[in-house]
C-alpha cells in the first residue's frame, strides 16, 4: 500500500502499489484538469497532455517518465508529470493544476 497526498485539496488517498495517478485522483473527486483540459482531455490515453501535475515529494516512488511525457514536458520543470502516465509505487505528494 502507498499514499498519495493532494496538497491543494488537503486530501490523502491510500492506494495499492502500481496505481495510476489520474485514475486515483478522479476516483477520489480530485479535479486535475483546468477548464481547457476538461473540454479537450483524451480520457487518460496519454495523447493530450492536459493532466499535468507537480510532484512535491516522492518522485523516486513513481514510474519512469514515458517517451511521450519526455516530449510533452520537455520545456516544463523536472517535477511535472502527466497523471495518466504515472504509476505510484510509494508515498507521494502532488500539486494539481500547477
Q: Could you walk me through the main structural features you see in this protein, from its secondary elements to its overall organization?
A:
The protein is of the alpha+beta class and about 100 residues long. It has helices at about 20-25, 35-40, 65-70, and strands at about 1-5, 10-15, 20, 50-55, 80, 85-90, 90-95. A five-stranded mixed β-sheet has the order 2-1-7-4-5, with helices on one face. It has a two-stranded antiparallel ribbon with strand order 3-6. It starts with a strand and ends with a strand. The relative contact order is 0.30. The mean pLDDT is about 95.
Describe the secondary structure blueprint for this structure.
Layout: E1 2-6, E2 11-15, E3 19-20, H1 21-27, H2 35-40, E4 52-57, H3 67-72, E5 80-82, E6 87-88, E7 92-96
Parallel strand pairs: 1-7
Antiparallel strand pairs: 1-2, 3-6, 4-5, 4-7
Structure characteristics:
98 residues; alpha+beta; 5-stranded mixed β-sheet; two-stranded antiparallel sheet
Amino acid at each position: 500500500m502507498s499514499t498519495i497526498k493532494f496538497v491543494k485539496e488537503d486530501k490523502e488517498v491510500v492506494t495499492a502499489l502500481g496505481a495510476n495517478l489520474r485514475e486515483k485522483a478522479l476516483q477520489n473527486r480530485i479535479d486535475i484538469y483546468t477548464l481547457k483540459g476538461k473540454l479537450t482531455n483524451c480520457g487518460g490515453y496519454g495523447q493530450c497532455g492536459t493532466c499535468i501535475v507537480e510532484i512535491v515529494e516522492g518522485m523516486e516512488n513513481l514510474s519512469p517518465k514515458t517517451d511521450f511525457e519526455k516530449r510533452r514536458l520537455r520545456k516544463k520543470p523536472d517535477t511535472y508529470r502527466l497523471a495518466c502516465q504515472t504509476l505510484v509505487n510509494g508515498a507521494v505528494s502532488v500539486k494539481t493544476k500547477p
